[in-house]
Amino acid sequence: MSTMGPDANAPWYMKYGARGVGTAGGIIAMGLGFFNCLTFSAWCLVAGIYQLFAGFIVVSAEAPCCCMFIDFVQRYSKFVEERPQWQKAALYIVLSLPGIIMCQSVSIFFGSGFIFLTGVLYGMMALGRKGSRNDMLAAAQASGPVGATGMKSSLVNMEAPPATS
């Protein structure tokens, strides 16, 4: 990963943690998807095949070294790496949902759950770091005193309570 990319301000442990969870979760999702293909239910068979596909997409994006003998994986991985964090989060979260919708089994839940967790980690990186205590105090004090023109007055617009009859 480059230090000047879209995730340059994310902490190192979040970057590598999301990549690790994505890689391990994609491999686990592929294994559990294959296991789910051994079922006799048509929807669970389709969900297992979909989970195999979703796991491959995640692994090829997060750890292209696992798929180095497939021609397009390096270009695809570079393309995904250059995307902003919120787009990666949206991709992984949306990618995890159809399998769970098609078949409610433990193997689909865990496999898609790891992909969903990867999306959540990228979403947390997209939100950024929390402000320091001093920054939050300054923002709270800049809004003025609590009262007619303070912070709480904008929440209720100084309206009267509804009449009870």
From TrEMBL:
Superkingdom, taxonomy of origin: Eukaryota
Membrane topology, record value: Multi-pass membrane protein
Locations listed in the record: Cytoplasmic vesicle, Secretory vesicle, Synaptic vesicle membrane; Presynaptic cell membrane
Database matches in SMART domains: Cg6151-P (SM01077)
Keyword rRNA-binding applies: no
Principal localisation: membrane
A Pfam family matched in the record: Cg6151-P
One GO term describing the cellular component: synaptic vesicle membrane
Keywords attached to this entry: Calcium, Calcium channel, Calcium transport, Cell projection, Cytoplasmic vesicle, Ion channel, Ion transport, Membrane, Transmembrane, Transmembrane helix, Transport
GO biological process, one term: vesicle-mediated transport
GO terms for MF: calcium channel activity
Keyword Transmembrane: yes
Transmembrane segments annotated in the record for this chain: 21-43, 49-73, 108-127
Coiled-coil annotated spans: none
InterPro entries: TVP18/Ca-channel_flower (IPR019365)
Assembly: Homomultimer. Associates with the dally/ magu complex.
Protein family (similarity comment): Belongs to the calcium channel flower family.
Protein name per its UniProtKB record: Calcium channel flower
Organism per entry: Hyalella azteca
